[in-house]
Design a protein that fits this description.
By secondary structure, the protein is of the alpha/beta class. It has 18 helices and 17 strands. The structure holds iron/sulfur cluster (SF4). Iron/sulfur cluster binds next to helix 2.
């Protein structure tokens, strides 16, 4: 739980010696509370102050790092709602493969997982992990598949064996992958945490209820292992939603450490499917819907890792787009570099358009220009990642600032045309822009990017 400035001040020496760079201990405490200073700047801080402030600085949801470079980060969350500050690490998406699937199908799935990339607003999304499930009784097939998946994809694994021995063997076989070992039941945590520790993996613990799960987490932590994930046992979409919310709320609002871990959830179970079957709908349609509903719930409600039952590029695209929307930091708009972008294969005589450097705006406008079939130059000045109207209202997209940018990048030397198309929403800056760029004619384009194609056909290439 975050401490206030006054609470922190009580822990400081209160001598106002100024050695920390602040005039008083209270001023320094206020900076610490706002995370604008480090306690190390006070040479007289007591061990008690270091202990209490260190614990308070810990995120309520513990951070876990997975993968060969430990590049896949989970947890470290501090808020329940994104608008309170930001979410720190997005839900990792894993795809399941089973040791009883035909080898050619498994190979194709692993290759598809490795190659899949979704590019949207300049961001690339990939499948983060591979879940290896043991379907048969023979652990050797499970272990061999885990090894193959690790070698082929280089992604961290979720090792879901039926027994402690099977998980142990797979954990040893993929040491270095920093994967997740799944406990088959609540009791197996005691046997598997030493395996996870020795082979540098994380451990997903499970139990029938949240109280029992918290007890397993506390026991494992006390025993000496704390790289844990929580795997809830729920039996309906409503219970899934409620359990995730209760656990995260308890961890963040009450600072309850035994539930302060990222989660691991499997989707694609059948209760809703059975309900649909009873209504006469096709089981496969119901199962697909069930999977998607569950995955959306996980992404929207604090999921650490969500395991999809199959590789489906269409479903992945939808889920990754949803994830991008939720986990983008609202305080840091996604933006593209300010510069003059070629769209298609423009020549010095190609038309010139202007828009802001908010990624979504840039990609939509450049996409619409491409759709019109012409090549063009797209001038994108620095607007701090704001959309057209917001940037204009903030004084970042004015006639004067656009003219200044065009001069800085030497636009007049790069193109022969002397016409510039601006967004229709900022028609009022056309006069100021023409004043700033003598010899140029400013055309006012449409308000909506969707109307660019018809505008271009009517006014630009006509
Ligand atoms: Fe107070 Fe420590 Fe700063 Fe001195 S250095 S003013 S004791 S906080």
């Amino acid at each position: 739980m975050a401490l206030t400035g006054l609470q922190i001040q009580k822990l400081l020496p209160k001598t106002n010696c100024k050695e920390c760079g602040s005039n008083t201990c209270l001023a320094f405490a206020m900076k610490l509370a706002a995370k604008k200073a480090d306690l190390a700047a006070c040479p007289y801080a007591s061990e008690e102050a270091k202990r209490v402030l260190g614990a308070a600085a810990e995120a309520p949801v513990r951070g876990i790092a997975l993968g060969p470079q430990k590049a896949l980060k989970l947890g470290e969350e501090t808020v329940l709602y994104r608008h309170e500050r930001t979410f720190v690490h997005q839900t990792a998406i894993a795809v399941n493969v089973c040791d009883t699937d035909p080898p050619e199908q498994t190979n194709a799935t692993l290759k598809a997982i490795k190659d899949y990339v979704l590019e949207r607003v300049g961001e690339e999304s990939r499948v983060d992990a591979v879940c290896i499930s043991q379907g048969g009784e023979n652990a050797s097939g499970f272990v061999a598949l885990a090894k193959k998946a690790w070698e082929l994809t280089g992604r961290p694994l979720v090792l879901r064996g039926k027994t402690v021995d099977a998980v142990r063997s797979a954990a040893v076989a993929v040491m270095g992958s920093h994967s997740i070992l799944c406990c088959p039941d609540a009791e197996s945590a005691d046997e598997l945490w030493p395996v996870a520790k020795e082979n540098e993996h994380a451990l997903a613990i499970t139990a029938p209820t949240l109280d029992e799960l918290a007890a397993v987490a506390e026991r494992t932590k006390q025993a000496g292992f704390n790289d844990l994930l929580l795997s809830f046992q729920t039996h309906s979409p409503a219970e899934r939603f409620q359990t995730a919310t209760i656990a995260r709320r308890t961890a963040i609002r009450d600072n309850f450490k035994p539930l302060g871990y990222p989660t691991l959830r499997f989707v694609g179970t059948v209760p809703l499917s059975q309900q649909f079957e009873r209504r006469g709908q096709s089981p496969s349609h119901a199962a697909d819907l069930e999977t998607t509903v569950q995955a959306v719930t996980e992404i929207a409600k604090y999921g650490g890792v969500v395991v999809l039952p199959r590789f489906d590029p269409a479903e992945l695209a939808a889920l990754m787009t949803l994830r991008l929307n939720i986990y983008t930091d609202p305080q840091k708009p996604i933006q593209v570099e300010p510069k003059v972008y070629p769209v298609g294969d423009p020549t010095p005589d190609s038309p010139v358009f202007v828009t802001t450097n908010f990624s979504l705006t840039y990609f939509i406008v450049s996409g619409e220009i491409e759709n019109s079939g012409i090549s063009a130059w797209l001038v994108v000045p620095e607007c701090e990642g704001m959309s057209v109207l917001t940037a204009w209202a903030a004084g970042k997209f004015s006639g004067e600032s656009i003219a200044r940018f065009c001069k800085e990048v030497g636009l007049a030397d790069q193109v022969r045309t002397r016409k510039l198309v601006i967004p229709g929403y900022v028609a009022q800056i056309s006069g100021e822009l023409e004043e700033g760029l003598p010899g140029w004619q400013v055309l006012v384009g449409p308000q909506e990017a969707a109307d660019l194609e018809s505008f271009i056909k009517a006014k630009v290439v006509a």
